[in-house]
C-alpha cells in the first residue's frame, strides 16, 4: 500500500532505519571520545568533529529528500555519504576508547581500517554523484554516464592518497589502520594524478551545472542557485585557508551544502534565492576585490615611494580604493542583477529584446521573451475575448496583472507570476512592464483586428458561395424548367398552325403565361441580388419608403421617423449604397421592434466618406440594465468592415462610416 508520497511503508522504514543508524553511530562515537577524555582541541585537530557533524547533517537532509521525493536518488546518496562519515567518527571514538581499555589489536586494526575508508567511499562516489544528478536525479544527457563510470574506476586513486591522510592519530599504535599498497616512489606520481583527476571532476561538475542553467527552465535555475548558495560558504572558507585559517573550518562549511540541496529539491520556492545569491556574490566579490587591490596597490606604491614617509603609500591606496569602490559596486551589481534578474534594470534593453521577438515571431512569442528577459516564472498574454495568445512557464504563486489599453479601450492583459518570496512586483519589474504595455497593446489590437478580418473574409467567402448555390438552384429548378416548357410549347404551336389554328392559339396563350412567369422569376432573382428600391427610388427615396412602412408598430403605436440628409446625394459606389441601405434599414427595424422609442432620427452626411447615424429615444424594457448586441448588430458591423469602414452600435445609437474610395 502506498502513502501520499508514492512510496511504500517498507521504503519509509528503510529511510528511518538508515537515519537512526547514522545518528546512533555519531552518538556512540561522541560518547566514546568524551569517556576517553579526548580534549576539544584534539577533536578539532584530527577532524573528528567534521565526521560527527557530517554524520548528522547529511543523513537528516537526505532522509527529508528520500521521504518527499522517493524516486530522486539524491536523498539516498546524501544518506550514504553521511553514513560513511558517521562510521568513520564511530571508529575513531571506539579506537581511542579501545586503546584505553586494551582491546585486542586485531579488533582495533580492523575497526580503524574500515572506518578510515568508509568516508572515502562516500566522498568519492555518493558526494560526487550528487552534483551530476542534481536536481532531478537524472543526468542531463546519456553521454554523461561515462563520467560516472570513470569516477568509479578511478576511485582506487582516492583510496591510495586520501587514506594516508590520517593526521597521525593512531600512528605507531595497535589501532594504526592499513592502507592500499603502493610501490615505493609512486606516491608523488599518484598525487599528481589525483590532482589532475580532481580538476577534471570539478570541470565536469561545473560543465553539468552550466549546461543545466543554460538549457533548463526557471525552476531548474532557481534550484541551481540554491546549490550555489550552499557552496558559497565552502568557497569562502577555502579562501580563508590561504590566510592561515585551519582546514577544519573549510570542512565545517560543507554543512551548509546539504541544507541547500534539501531546500532546492523539496521546497525551492521557499524564498527568492536570487536575492540572496545576488547580494552574496556582490559583496563577496567586492570584499575579495578590495582586499586584493589593497594588497597589490600597497606593495606597488611602497616600491615606488620607498624614499618617502611610510604613511604616504597607504594614504594614496586608501584614497584610490575609496574613489573606485562605488563604480566597482555599480558595475558588479549590474553584472549580478543581469545574470539573476535579466534586463529589468535596463528597461530600454528589455523592451528592445522583446520587440525583436515580437517582430520576428508575433505576439505568441512575447510571454517567453518577457519571462526570459525578466527571469519570471510565469507569463501569460490574453486578449479581451479571453483567447490565450500565449503563455510561458507555470504559475506557482501570486501573480500580477498589467492591463493593456489601446485607444481608451482595454484590449487584453499581461499576467506575470511573481518570484518565490515576492508578494508584489519590484519597482524595476513594474517599470519594464509599464513600458512594454504600450507597444504590446498595439500589437495585440492589431492581432485581434487581423483575426477579425480573417474571420470576416471567411464569412464573406462562405456567404458568396451560398448565394451562388442559391442562384444556381433557382435557375436550375425554376427558370430552367419554365424556359424548357416554353420551348416545347413553341414547337407544338408550329406543328398545329397548319391544321388546328384554334388549338395553336390556346397554346400561344399558355406560352405567353409561361414566359410571364419566367420574367417574374428573373425579377425575383434580380431583387435578391440588389434591393430594387435603390434602382427605382435611389438611396434617400428607398429609406423614406422604408421609414413610411415602419411608422406604425404592430400594437398600433405611432413611431416618428425623421430623415436628415442633403437634398441630393452624389453618385455613390454600388457597394457603399447597398451597405448604407442595409445598415440603415436594420437600425430602423431594431429601433421600431426593440427600443420602445417614440422618435427615431436618421442622419446622412457626405464628407470624406458617407456618415450614417440612427438615434432613438427608447428606454429599457422590463428593468433591463445590460445591453447586448445581437445578430443584426454583428451584420451591420461586418458590412461596414467589408468596405474598410466602421460601425459602432450602442444603446439608442448606431453610427457607421463608409469610405467612398475617391469615386464621389
Overall mean pLDDT score? 75
Molecular shape: elongated
Strand portion: 5-15%
| Global structural class | alpha+beta
Q: Uncertain regions: pLDDT < 50 for 5+ in a row?
A: 623-627
Helix amount: 55-70%
- What's the CATH first level of the largest domain? Mainly Alpha
Query: Could you give the order of strands across the largest sheet?
Result: 5-6-7-9-8
Total strand count, please? 9
So how many helices?
20
The biggest beta sheet reads:
5 strands, mixed
Look up the CATH topology of the largest domain.
Rhopdopsin 7-helix transmembrane proteins
Second CATH tier, the architecture of the largest domain: Up-down Bundle
What is the H/E string? HHHHHHHHHHHHHHHEEEEHHHEHEEHEE
Distance between the termini: 84 Å
Number of domains: 5
**Radius of gyration, CA atoms, in whole angstroms:** 44 Å
Main traits of this protein?
5 domains, Rhopdopsin 7-helix transmembrane proteins, Beta-Lactamase, alpha+beta
Amino acid at each position: 500500500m502506498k502513502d501520499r508520497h508514492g512510496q511504500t511503508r517498507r521504503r519509509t522504514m528503510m529511510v528511518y532505519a538508515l537515519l537512526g543508524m547514522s545518528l546512533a553511530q555519531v552518538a556512540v562515537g561522541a560518547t566514546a571520545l568524551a569517556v576517553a577524555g579526548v580534549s576539544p582541541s584534539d577533536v578539532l585537530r584530527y577532524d573528528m568533529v567534521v565526521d560527527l557533524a557530517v554524520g548528522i547533517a547529511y543523513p537528516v537532509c537526505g532522509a527529508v529528500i528520500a521521504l518527499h521525493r522517493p524516486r530522486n536518488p539524491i536523498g539516498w546518496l546524501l544518506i550514504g555519504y553521511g553514513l560513511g562519515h558517521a562510521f568513520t567518527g564511530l571508529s575513531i571514538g571506539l579506537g581511542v576508547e579501545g586503546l584505553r581499555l586494551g582491546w585486542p589489536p586485531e579488533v582495533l586494526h580492523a575497526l580503524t581500517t574500515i572506518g578510515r575508508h568508509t568516508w572515502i567511499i562516500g566522498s568519492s562516489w555518493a558526494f560526487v554523484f550528487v552534483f551530476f544528478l542534481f536536481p532531478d536525479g537524472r543526468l542531463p544527457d546519456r553521454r554523461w554516464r561515462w563520467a560516472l563510470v570513470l569516477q568509479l574506476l578511478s576511485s582506487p586513486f582516492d583510496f591510495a592518497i586520501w587514506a594516508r591522510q590520517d593526521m597521525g592519530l593512531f600512528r605507531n599504535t595497535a589501532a594504526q589502520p592499513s592502507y592500499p599498497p603502493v610501490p615505493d616512489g609512486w606516491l608523488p606520481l599518484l598525487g599528481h594524478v589525483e590532482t589532475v583527476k580532481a580538476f577534471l571532476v570539478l570541470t565536469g561538475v561545473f560543465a553539468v551545472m552550466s549546461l543545466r542553467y543554460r538549457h533548463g527552465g526557471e525552476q531548474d535555475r532557481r534550484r541551481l542557485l540554491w546549490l550555489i548558495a550552499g557552496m558559497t560558504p565552502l568557497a569562502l572558507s577555502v579562501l580563508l585557508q590561504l590566510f592561515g585559517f585551519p582546514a577544519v573550518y573549510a570542512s565545517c562549511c560543507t554543512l551548509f551544502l546539504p541544507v541547500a540541496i534539501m531546500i532546492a529539491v523539496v521546497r525551492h520556492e521557499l524564498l527568492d534565492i536570487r536575492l540572496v545569491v545576488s547580494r552574496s556574490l556582490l559583496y563577496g566579490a567586492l570584499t575579495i576585490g578590495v582586499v586584493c587591490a589593497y594588497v597589490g596597490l600597497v606593495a606597488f606604491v611602497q616600491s615606488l615611494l620607498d624614499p618617502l614617509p611610510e604613511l604616504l603609500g597607504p594614504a594614496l591606496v586608501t584614497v584610490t580604493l575609496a574613489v573606485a569602490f562605488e563604480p566597482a559596486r555599480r558595475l558588479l551589481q549590474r553584472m549580478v542583477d543581469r545574470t539573476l534578474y535579466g534586463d529589468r534594470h535596463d528597461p530600454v534593453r528589455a523592451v528592445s529584446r522583446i520587440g525583436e521577438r515580437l517582430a520576428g515571431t508575433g505576439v505568441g512569442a512575447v510571454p517567453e521573451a518577457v519571462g526570459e528577459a525578466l527571469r519570471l516564472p510565469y507569463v501569460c498574454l490574453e486578449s479581451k475575448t479571453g483567447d490565450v495568445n500565449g503563455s510561458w512557464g507555470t504559475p506557482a504563486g501570486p501573480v500580477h496583472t498589467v492591463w493593456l489599453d489601446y485607444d481608451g479601450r482595454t484590449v487584453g492583459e499581461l499576467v506575470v507570476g511573481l518570484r518565490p518570496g515576492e508578494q508584489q512586483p519590484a519597482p524595476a519589474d513594474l517599470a519594464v512592464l509599464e513600458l512594454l504595455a504600450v507597444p504590446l497593446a498595439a500589437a495585440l489590437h492589431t492581432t485581434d483586428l487581423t483575426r477579425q478580418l480573417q474571420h470576416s473574409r471567411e464569412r464573406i467567402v462562405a456567404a458568396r458561395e451560398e448565394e451562388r448555390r442559391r442562384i444556381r438552384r433557382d435557375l436550375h429548378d425554376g427558370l430552367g424548367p419554365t424556359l424548357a416548357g416554353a420551348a416545347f410549347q413553341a414547337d407544338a404551336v408550329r406543328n398545329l398552325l397548319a391544321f388546328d389554328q384554334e388549338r395553336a392559339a390556346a397554346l400561344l396563350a399558355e406560352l405567353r403565361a409561361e414566359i410571364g412567369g419566367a420574367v417574374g422569376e428573373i425579377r425575383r432573382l434580380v431583387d435578391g441580388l440588389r434591393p430594387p428600391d435603390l434602382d427605382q427610388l435611389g438611396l434617400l427615396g428607398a429609406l423614406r419608403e422604408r421609414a413610411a412602412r415602419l411608422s406604425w408598430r404592430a400594437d398600433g403605436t405611432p413611431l416618428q421617423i425623421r430623415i436628415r440628409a442633403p437634398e441630393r446625394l452624389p453618385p455613390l459606389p454600388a457597394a457603399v449604397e447597398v451597405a448604407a441601405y442595409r445598415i440603415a434599414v436594420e437600425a430602423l427595424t431594431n429601433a421600431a421592434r426593440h427600443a420602445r422609442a417614440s422618435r427615431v432620427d436618421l442622419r446622412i452626411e457626405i464628407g470624406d466618406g458617407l456618415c450614417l447615424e440612427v438615434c432613438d429615444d427608447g428606454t429599457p424594457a422590463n428593468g433591463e440594465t445590460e445591453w447586448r448586441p445581437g445578430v443584426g448588430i454583428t451584420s451591420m458591423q461586418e458590412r461596414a468592415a467589408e468596405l474598410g469602414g466602421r460601425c459602432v452600435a450602442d444603446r439608442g445609437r448606431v453610427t457607421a462610416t463608409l469610405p467612398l474610395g475617391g469615386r464621389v
